[in-house]
Protein backbone atom coordinates (compact mmCIF):
# COMPACT_ATOMS: atom_id res chain seq x y z
CA UNK A 1 0.00 0.00 0.00
CA UNK A 2 1.11 3.56 -0.78
CA UNK A 3 2.20 5.57 2.26
CA UNK A 4 0.68 9.09 2.23
CA UNK A 5 1.81 10.26 5.70
CA UNK A 6 5.11 9.38 7.37
CA UNK A 7 5.98 10.57 10.89
CA UNK A 8 9.47 9.71 12.12
CA UNK A 9 10.51 10.59 15.70
CA UNK A 10 8.59 13.88 15.55
CA UNK A 11 8.74 16.18 18.56
CA UNK A 12 7.26 19.61 19.16
CA UNK A 13 8.28 21.91 22.00
CA UNK A 14 6.54 25.09 23.16
CA UNK A 15 7.71 27.75 25.57
CA UNK A 16 5.09 28.72 28.12
CA UNK A 17 4.55 32.03 29.86
CA UNK A 18 4.45 35.70 28.94
CA UNK A 19 5.94 37.45 25.96
CA UNK A 20 9.21 38.66 27.46
CA UNK A 21 10.16 41.14 24.70
CA UNK A 22 7.04 43.27 24.88
CA UNK A 23 7.05 43.30 28.70
CA UNK A 24 10.72 44.17 29.11
CA UNK A 25 10.41 47.21 26.85
CA UNK A 26 8.03 48.87 29.31
CA UNK A 27 10.11 48.31 32.44
CA UNK A 28 13.13 49.99 33.98
CA UNK A 29 16.64 48.60 33.55
CA UNK A 30 16.83 47.23 37.11
CA UNK A 31 13.55 45.39 36.82
CA UNK A 32 14.53 44.09 33.35
CA UNK A 33 17.73 42.54 34.73
CA UNK A 34 15.82 40.91 37.59
CA UNK A 35 13.30 39.42 35.15
CA UNK A 36 16.08 38.15 32.87
CA UNK A 37 17.75 36.36 35.81
CA UNK A 38 14.40 34.89 36.86
CA UNK A 39 13.67 33.72 33.32
CA UNK A 40 17.08 32.09 33.00
CA UNK A 41 16.69 30.11 36.23
CA UNK A 42 13.19 28.92 35.37
CA UNK A 43 13.62 28.44 31.61
CA UNK A 44 13.54 24.67 31.84
CA UNK A 45 10.24 24.77 33.74
CA UNK A 46 8.73 26.94 31.00
CA UNK A 47 9.23 24.33 28.25
CA UNK A 48 6.43 21.99 27.23
CA UNK A 49 6.83 18.99 24.96
CA UNK A 50 3.47 18.83 23.14
CA UNK A 51 4.76 15.82 21.18
CA UNK A 52 7.73 13.57 21.97
CA UNK A 53 9.23 11.06 19.50
CA UNK A 54 6.00 10.24 17.67
CA UNK A 55 6.24 7.84 14.74
CA UNK A 56 3.54 6.33 12.52
CA UNK A 57 2.59 5.71 8.88
CA UNK A 58 -0.76 6.26 7.16
CA UNK A 59 -1.48 4.43 3.92
CA UNK A 60 -3.83 5.32 1.08
CA UNK A 61 -7.49 4.74 1.99
CA UNK A 62 -6.71 4.16 5.69
CA UNK A 63 -8.58 5.81 8.56
CA UNK A 64 -6.64 6.66 11.70
CA UNK A 65 -8.11 8.00 14.96
CA UNK A 66 -6.16 10.11 17.43
CA UNK A 67 -7.48 9.58 20.95
CA UNK A 68 -6.43 10.89 24.33
CA UNK A 69 -7.29 13.53 26.92
CA UNK A 70 -7.20 17.26 26.26
CA UNK A 71 -3.57 18.33 26.02
CA UNK A 72 -2.38 14.91 24.84
CA UNK A 73 -0.98 16.38 21.61
CA UNK A 74 -3.70 15.44 19.11
CA UNK A 75 -4.32 18.93 17.72
CA UNK A 76 -0.58 19.68 17.65
CA UNK A 77 -0.05 16.61 15.50
CA UNK A 78 -2.71 17.76 13.06
CA UNK A 79 -1.26 21.28 12.91
CA UNK A 80 2.13 19.80 12.06
CA UNK A 81 0.53 17.80 9.25
CA UNK A 82 -1.31 20.86 7.95
CA UNK A 83 1.98 22.84 8.05
CA UNK A 84 0.46 25.38 10.45
CA UNK A 85 3.48 24.88 12.70
CA UNK A 86 6.81 23.12 12.25
CA UNK A 87 8.34 20.31 14.35
CA UNK A 88 11.16 20.93 16.79
CA UNK A 89 12.78 17.69 15.62
CA UNK A 90 11.97 14.68 13.49
CA UNK A 91 10.79 14.19 9.92
CA UNK A 92 7.31 14.54 8.37
CA UNK A 93 6.45 13.45 4.82
CA UNK A 94 3.02 14.10 3.28
CA UNK A 95 2.15 12.85 -0.22
CA UNK A 96 -0.89 14.20 -2.04
CA UNK A 97 -3.45 16.97 -1.58
CA UNK A 98 -4.39 17.58 2.05
CA UNK A 99 -7.57 19.23 3.36
CA UNK A 100 -7.87 20.16 7.02
CA UNK A 101 -10.87 20.92 9.19
CA UNK A 102 -9.08 21.40 12.49
CA UNK A 103 -10.56 24.61 13.90
CA UNK A 104 -14.04 26.07 13.70
CA UNK A 105 -14.14 28.34 10.65
CA UNK A 106 -10.52 27.62 9.76
CA UNK A 107 -9.61 28.96 6.34
CA UNK A 108 -12.67 31.24 6.13
CA UNK A 109 -12.41 35.01 5.77
CA UNK A 110 -15.18 36.48 7.96
CA UNK A 111 -15.96 39.39 5.61
CA UNK A 112 -16.34 37.18 2.54
CA UNK A 113 -19.58 35.40 1.69
CA UNK A 114 -20.01 31.65 1.83
CA UNK A 115 -19.78 31.53 -1.97
CA UNK A 116 -16.53 33.51 -2.01
CA UNK A 117 -15.04 31.38 0.76
CA UNK A 118 -15.80 28.20 -1.19
CA UNK A 119 -13.75 29.53 -4.11
CA UNK A 120 -11.03 30.79 -1.77
CA UNK A 121 -10.73 27.44 0.04
CA UNK A 122 -10.76 25.54 -3.23
CA UNK A 123 -7.95 27.71 -4.59
CA UNK A 124 -5.89 27.21 -1.43
CA UNK A 125 -6.32 23.45 -1.86
CA UNK A 126 -5.00 23.68 -5.42
CA UNK A 127 -8.23 23.47 -7.43
CA UNK A 128 -8.71 25.40 -10.63
CA UNK A 129 -11.68 27.75 -10.86
CA UNK A 130 -13.44 25.44 -13.33
CA UNK A 131 -13.07 22.51 -10.93
CA UNK A 132 -14.60 24.55 -8.12
CA UNK A 133 -17.47 25.65 -10.37
CA UNK A 134 -18.12 22.02 -11.31
CA UNK A 135 -18.35 20.98 -7.64
CA UNK A 136 -19.94 24.14 -6.26
CA UNK A 137 -23.57 22.94 -6.37
CA UNK A 138 -22.59 19.67 -4.63
CA UNK A 139 -20.76 21.58 -1.87
CA UNK A 140 -23.70 23.93 -1.23
CA UNK A 141 -26.23 21.09 -1.29
CA UNK A 142 -24.19 19.07 1.20
CA UNK A 143 -23.82 22.03 3.56
CA UNK A 144 -27.60 22.67 3.48
CA UNK A 145 -27.10 26.46 3.72
CA UNK A 146 -28.26 27.47 0.22
CA UNK A 147 -30.29 30.35 1.65
CA UNK A 148 -27.20 31.92 3.25
CA UNK A 149 -24.52 31.17 0.66
CA UNK A 150 -24.25 34.87 -0.32
CA UNK A 151 -24.13 36.07 3.31
CA UNK A 152 -20.77 36.98 4.94
CA UNK A 153 -19.63 34.04 7.05
CA UNK A 154 -19.10 36.27 10.09
CA UNK A 155 -22.88 36.11 10.43
CA UNK A 156 -22.93 32.29 10.34
CA UNK A 157 -23.62 30.23 13.42
CA UNK A 158 -21.01 27.69 14.55
CA UNK A 159 -23.11 24.90 13.06
CA UNK A 160 -23.31 26.65 9.68
CA UNK A 161 -19.51 27.15 9.67
CA UNK A 162 -18.98 23.45 10.33
CA UNK A 163 -21.44 22.48 7.59
CA UNK A 164 -19.73 24.63 4.97
CA UNK A 165 -16.22 23.76 6.13
CA UNK A 166 -16.82 20.02 6.04
CA UNK A 167 -18.65 20.29 2.71
CA UNK A 168 -15.68 22.03 1.08
CA UNK A 169 -13.10 19.72 2.66
CA UNK A 170 -14.94 16.51 1.75
CA UNK A 171 -16.55 17.31 -1.61
CA UNK A 172 -13.21 18.16 -3.26
CA UNK A 173 -12.14 14.57 -2.47
CA UNK A 174 -8.63 15.26 -1.08
CA UNK A 175 -5.95 12.59 -0.79
CA UNK A 176 -5.78 13.22 2.96
CA UNK A 177 -8.52 14.68 5.18
CA UNK A 178 -7.87 15.92 8.72
CA UNK A 179 -10.92 16.30 10.99
CA UNK A 180 -10.51 17.58 14.56
CA UNK A 181 -13.54 17.55 16.88
CA UNK A 182 -15.46 20.15 14.85
CA UNK A 183 -18.24 17.66 13.99
CA UNK A 184 -19.27 17.78 17.66
CA UNK A 185 -20.79 21.20 16.92
CA UNK A 186 -23.13 19.90 14.22
CA UNK A 187 -26.55 18.43 14.95
CA UNK A 188 -27.13 14.68 15.07
CA UNK A 189 -28.51 14.37 11.54
CA UNK A 190 -25.56 16.27 10.05
CA UNK A 191 -23.09 14.15 12.05
CA UNK A 192 -24.71 11.05 10.58
CA UNK A 193 -24.45 12.58 7.12
CA UNK A 194 -20.76 13.35 7.69
CA UNK A 195 -20.09 9.77 8.83
CA UNK A 196 -21.63 8.44 5.63
CA UNK A 197 -19.55 10.89 3.59
CA UNK A 198 -16.38 9.78 5.39
CA UNK A 199 -17.17 6.15 4.58
CA UNK A 200 -17.61 7.13 0.93
CA UNK A 201 -14.27 8.98 0.88
CA UNK A 202 -12.48 5.99 2.41
CA UNK A 203 -13.99 3.71 -0.22
CA UNK A 204 -12.64 6.04 -2.92
CA UNK A 205 -9.11 6.04 -1.52
CA UNK A 206 -9.00 9.15 0.69
CA UNK A 207 -6.94 8.74 3.86
CA UNK A 208 -8.47 10.24 6.99
CA UNK A 209 -7.04 11.28 10.36
CA UNK A 210 -9.91 11.78 12.77
CA UNK A 211 -9.95 13.36 16.24
CA UNK A 212 -13.00 13.19 18.50
CA UNK A 213 -13.81 12.65 22.17
CA UNK A 214 -16.91 10.78 21.00
CA UNK A 215 -15.56 7.24 21.30
CA UNK A 216 -18.59 5.76 19.54
CA UNK A 217 -17.98 7.97 16.50
CA UNK A 218 -14.28 7.10 16.51
CA UNK A 219 -15.01 3.39 16.44
CA UNK A 220 -17.61 3.83 13.68
CA UNK A 221 -15.15 5.73 11.45
CA UNK A 222 -11.63 4.40 12.08
CA UNK A 223 -10.06 0.97 11.70
CA UNK A 224 -6.91 1.90 13.61
CA UNK A 225 -6.00 4.42 16.29
CA UNK A 226 -3.11 6.21 17.96
CA UNK A 227 -3.51 6.71 21.71
CA UNK A 228 -1.53 9.75 22.86
CA UNK A 229 -0.76 10.63 26.47
CA UNK A 230 1.26 13.72 27.40
CA UNK A 231 2.59 13.94 23.85
CA UNK A 232 3.78 10.36 23.60
CA UNK A 233 2.34 7.29 21.88
CA UNK A 234 0.94 4.82 24.42
CA UNK A 235 -0.61 2.44 21.90
CA UNK A 236 -0.85 2.17 18.11
CA UNK A 237 -3.05 -0.44 16.48
CA UNK A 238 -6.66 -1.60 16.29
CA UNK A 239 -9.21 1.01 17.37
CA UNK A 240 -11.03 -1.25 19.84
CA UNK A 241 -7.77 -2.09 21.66
CA UNK A 242 -6.69 1.57 21.69
CA UNK A 243 -10.03 2.62 23.20
CA UNK A 244 -9.81 -0.17 25.77
CA UNK A 245 -6.33 1.01 26.81
CA UNK A 246 -7.46 4.65 26.93
CA UNK A 247 -10.56 3.89 29.01
CA UNK A 248 -8.58 1.70 31.41
CA UNK A 249 -6.16 4.57 32.00
CA UNK A 250 -9.10 6.93 32.61
CA UNK A 251 -10.61 4.53 35.17
CA UNK A 252 -7.26 4.15 36.94
CA UNK A 253 -6.82 7.93 37.03
CA UNK A 254 -10.30 8.41 38.48
CA UNK A 255 -9.55 5.77 41.11
CA UNK A 256 -6.36 7.60 42.12
CA UNK A 257 -8.27 10.88 42.42
CA UNK A 258 -10.87 9.17 44.61
CA UNK A 259 -8.11 7.95 46.92
CA UNK A 260 -6.72 11.48 47.15
CA UNK A 261 -10.14 12.98 47.85
CA UNK A 262 -11.40 11.73 51.20
CA UNK A 263 -14.86 13.17 50.61
CA UNK A 264 -15.32 11.27 47.40
CA UNK A 265 -13.94 8.10 48.97
CA UNK A 266 -16.47 8.34 51.77
CA UNK A 267 -19.30 8.88 49.28
CA UNK A 268 -18.19 5.83 47.33
CA UNK A 269 -18.16 3.64 50.41
CA UNK A 270 -21.73 4.66 51.24
CA UNK A 271 -23.12 2.93 48.14
CA UNK A 272 -21.41 -0.37 48.84
CA UNK A 273 -22.45 -1.67 45.39
CA UNK A 274 -20.37 -2.43 42.31
CA UNK A 275 -21.33 -3.83 38.89
CA UNK A 276 -18.54 -6.31 38.17
CA UNK A 277 -19.58 -7.57 34.71
CA UNK A 278 -22.18 -7.05 31.99
CA UNK A 279 -22.57 -10.03 29.64
CA UNK A 280 -24.40 -10.44 26.32
CA UNK A 281 -25.45 -14.07 25.80
CA UNK A 282 -27.16 -15.71 22.84
CA UNK A 283 -29.69 -17.91 24.63
CA UNK A 284 -30.10 -20.22 21.62
CA UNK A 285 -26.51 -21.39 22.09
CA UNK A 286 -25.15 -19.39 19.15
CA UNK A 287 -21.96 -17.34 19.08
CA UNK A 288 -22.00 -13.85 20.54
CA UNK A 289 -19.47 -12.71 17.91
CA UNK A 290 -22.28 -12.17 15.40
CA UNK A 291 -25.74 -12.27 16.96
CA UNK A 292 -28.65 -12.62 14.58
CA UNK A 293 -31.35 -10.00 14.99
CA UNK A 294 -34.02 -12.72 15.09
CA UNK A 295 -32.36 -14.65 17.94
CA UNK A 296 -33.19 -14.26 21.65
CA UNK A 297 -30.50 -12.57 23.73
CA UNK A 298 -29.90 -12.37 27.48
CA UNK A 299 -28.28 -9.34 29.09
CA UNK A 300 -26.79 -10.58 32.36
CA UNK A 301 -25.50 -8.18 35.05
CA UNK A 302 -23.16 -9.32 37.86
CA UNK A 303 -22.80 -7.21 40.99
CA UNK A 304 -21.44 -7.24 44.51
CA UNK A 305 -23.14 -5.51 47.45
CA UNK A 306 -21.82 -4.86 50.95
CA UNK A 307 -25.37 -4.77 52.30
CA UNK A 308 -28.86 -5.83 51.28
CA UNK A 309 -30.78 -3.18 49.30
CA UNK A 310 -34.54 -3.48 48.93
CA UNK A 311 -36.42 -2.18 45.87
CA UNK A 312 -33.40 -1.23 43.80
CA UNK A 313 -33.95 0.13 40.29
CA UNK A 314 -31.99 -1.32 37.35
CA UNK A 315 -31.58 0.50 34.04
CA UNK A 316 -30.32 -1.17 30.85
CA UNK A 317 -29.39 0.98 27.84
CA UNK A 318 -28.40 -0.51 24.48
CA UNK A 319 -26.19 2.00 22.66
CA UNK A 320 -25.29 1.93 18.95
CA UNK A 321 -21.76 2.64 17.67
CA UNK A 322 -22.67 6.23 16.70
CA UNK A 323 -23.82 6.97 20.27
CA UNK A 324 -27.55 6.59 19.69
CA UNK A 325 -29.47 5.00 22.59
CA UNK A 326 -31.60 2.36 20.85
CA UNK A 327 -33.64 1.40 23.89
CA UNK A 328 -33.75 1.96 27.63
CA UNK A 329 -35.31 -0.66 29.94
CA UNK A 330 -36.03 -0.05 33.63
CA UNK A 331 -37.26 -2.42 36.28
CA UNK A 332 -39.20 0.48 37.85
CA UNK A 333 -41.14 1.11 34.63
CA UNK A 334 -41.89 -2.61 34.29
CA UNK A 335 -42.92 -2.81 37.96
CA UNK A 336 -40.12 -5.29 38.69
CA UNK A 337 -38.22 -3.92 41.75
CA UNK A 338 -34.99 -5.74 42.53
CA UNK A 339 -33.83 -7.06 45.88
CA UNK A 340 -30.03 -6.80 45.91
CA UNK A 341 -28.77 -9.46 48.30
CA UNK A 342 -25.56 -8.98 50.26
CA UNK A 343 -22.53 -10.46 48.50
CA UNK A 344 -22.36 -11.50 44.87
CA UNK A 345 -25.55 -11.47 42.80
CA UNK A 346 -26.80 -11.64 39.24
CA UNK A 347 -29.90 -10.38 37.46
CA UNK A 348 -30.83 -10.46 33.78
CA UNK A 349 -33.28 -9.29 31.15
CA UNK A 350 -34.14 -11.47 28.13
CA UNK A 351 -35.07 -10.02 24.73
CA UNK A 352 -37.06 -12.46 22.61
CA UNK A 353 -35.86 -11.79 19.98
CA UNK A 354 -33.23 -9.03 19.94
CA UNK A 355 -34.75 -7.15 16.95
CA UNK A 356 -31.79 -4.75 16.44
CA UNK A 357 -30.65 -3.70 12.98
CA UNK A 358 -27.16 -4.99 12.12
CA UNK A 359 -24.18 -3.11 13.52
CA UNK A 360 -22.01 -2.68 16.61
CA UNK A 361 -23.54 -2.08 20.07
CA UNK A 362 -22.73 -2.12 23.76
CA UNK A 363 -24.85 -2.15 26.93
CA UNK A 364 -24.72 0.35 29.77
CA UNK A 365 -26.12 -0.91 33.09
CA UNK A 366 -27.05 1.25 36.09
CA UNK A 367 -28.21 0.43 39.61
CA UNK A 368 -29.89 3.03 41.81
CA UNK A 369 -32.08 3.16 44.87
CA UNK A 370 -35.86 3.35 44.59
CA UNK A 371 -37.13 6.40 42.65
CA UNK A 372 -33.60 7.10 41.32
CA UNK A 373 -32.62 8.90 44.52
CA UNK A 374 -29.03 7.58 44.68
CA UNK A 375 -26.93 6.13 41.86
CA UNK A 376 -25.36 3.00 43.28
CA UNK A 377 -23.23 1.59 40.45
CA UNK A 378 -22.61 1.63 36.70
CA UNK A 379 -21.16 -0.91 34.29
CA UNK A 380 -20.63 -1.48 30.60
CA UNK A 381 -20.49 -4.56 28.41
CA UNK A 382 -17.99 -5.33 25.69
CA UNK A 383 -19.00 -4.53 22.12
CA UNK A 384 -21.33 -7.04 20.50
CA UNK A 385 -22.25 -7.28 16.84
CA UNK A 386 -25.58 -7.95 15.15
CA UNK A 387 -25.27 -9.59 11.74
CA UNK A 388 -27.40 -10.01 8.64
CA UNK A 389 -28.95 -6.55 8.36
CA UNK A 390 -27.94 -3.13 6.95
CA UNK A 391 -25.13 -1.29 8.73
CA UNK A 392 -26.28 0.75 11.71
CA UNK A 393 -24.92 4.09 10.45
CA UNK A 394 -27.18 4.01 7.35
CA UNK A 395 -29.70 6.75 8.11
CA UNK A 396 -32.48 4.90 6.26
CA UNK A 397 -32.03 1.64 8.17
CA UNK A 398 -33.76 2.58 11.41
CA UNK A 399 -32.93 1.02 14.76
CA UNK A 400 -34.84 -2.24 15.16
CA UNK A 401 -36.52 -5.00 13.17
CA UNK A 402 -40.04 -5.54 14.59
CA UNK A 403 -41.97 -8.79 14.49
CA UNK A 404 -43.89 -8.70 11.23
CA UNK A 405 -46.09 -10.65 8.86
CA UNK A 406 -46.90 -9.73 5.25
CA UNK A 407 -50.32 -10.27 3.69
CA UNK A 408 -50.61 -11.32 0.04
CA UNK A 409 -52.84 -9.08 -2.14
CA UNK A 410 -55.00 -12.12 -2.93
CA UNK A 411 -55.60 -12.71 0.79
CA UNK A 412 -56.19 -9.09 1.76
CA UNK A 413 -59.92 -8.90 0.85
CA UNK A 414 -60.77 -12.00 2.86
CA UNK A 415 -58.60 -10.78 5.76
CA UNK A 416 -60.44 -7.45 5.90
CA UNK A 417 -63.78 -9.28 5.82
CA UNK A 418 -62.84 -11.18 8.98
CA UNK A 419 -62.82 -7.97 11.03
CA UNK A 420 -65.93 -7.10 12.96
CA UNK A 421 -68.11 -4.32 11.62
CA UNK A 422 -66.74 -1.82 14.15
CA UNK A 423 -63.16 -2.66 13.10
CA UNK A 424 -62.03 -3.33 16.66
CA UNK A 425 -60.56 -6.82 16.23
CA UNK A 426 -60.34 -9.84 13.95
CA UNK A 427 -62.33 -13.04 14.42
CA UNK A 428 -60.64 -16.27 15.39
CA UNK A 429 -61.24 -17.61 11.87
CA UNK A 430 -59.67 -14.47 10.43
CA UNK A 431 -56.53 -14.89 12.52
CA UNK A 432 -56.25 -18.54 11.52
CA UNK A 433 -56.67 -17.52 7.88
CA UNK A 434 -53.98 -14.87 8.30
CA UNK A 435 -51.51 -17.36 9.74
CA UNK A 436 -52.09 -19.65 6.79
CA UNK A 437 -51.81 -16.95 4.12
CA UNK A 438 -49.02 -14.62 5.19
CA UNK A 439 -45.46 -14.63 3.88
The gist of it:
This protein is α/β, with parallel strands linked by helices and 439 residues long.
Overall geometry: globular
Structural class: alpha/beta
Q: Supply Rg.
A: 28 Å
Mean pLDDT: 79
Low-confidence stretches: 262-269, 390-394, 425-430
Number of strands: 19
Describe the largest sheet.
7 strands, mixed
Query: How large is the share of residues in beta strands?
Result: 25-35%
Helix content: 25-40%
The end-to-end distance, rounded to whole angstroms, is 48 Å
What's the total helix number? Answer: 12
Explained architecture:
The protein has 439 residues and is α/β, with parallel strands linked by helices. 32% of the residues lie in helices and 31% in strands. The strands form 4 sheets. Strands 11, 13, 14, 15, 17, 18 and 19 form a 7-stranded mixed β-sheet that branches. Strands 5-6-7-3-8-9 form a 6-stranded mixed β-sheet, with helices on both faces. Helix 11 packs antiparallel against helix 12.
Topology:
Blueprint (H helix, E strand, L loop, with lengths): L2 E13 L4 H6 L3 H13 L5 E13 L3 E5 L6 H8 L7 E6 L3 E4 L12 H11 L4 H15 L14 H14 L4 E5 L7 H16 L3 E5 L3 H7 L2 E6 L2 E7 H22 L1 H10 L1 E10 L8 E2 L4 E9 L3 E12 L4 E6 L7 E3 L2 E9 L7 E10 L6 E6 L3 E4 L21 H9 L10 H10 L2
Amino acid sequence: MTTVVHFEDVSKQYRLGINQASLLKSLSEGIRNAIRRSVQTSAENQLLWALRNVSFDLTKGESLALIGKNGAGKSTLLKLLANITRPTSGRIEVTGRLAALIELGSGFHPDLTGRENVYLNGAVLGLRRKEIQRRFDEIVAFSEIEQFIDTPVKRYSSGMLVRLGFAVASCIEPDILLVDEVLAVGDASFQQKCLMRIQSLLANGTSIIFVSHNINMVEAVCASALYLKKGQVVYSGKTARAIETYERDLHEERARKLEENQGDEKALSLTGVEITQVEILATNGGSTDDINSKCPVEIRVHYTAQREIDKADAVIRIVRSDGLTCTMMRTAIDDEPLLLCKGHGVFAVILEPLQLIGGAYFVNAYLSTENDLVLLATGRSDWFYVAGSPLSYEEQSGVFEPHRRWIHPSAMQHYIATYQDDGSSATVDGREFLEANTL
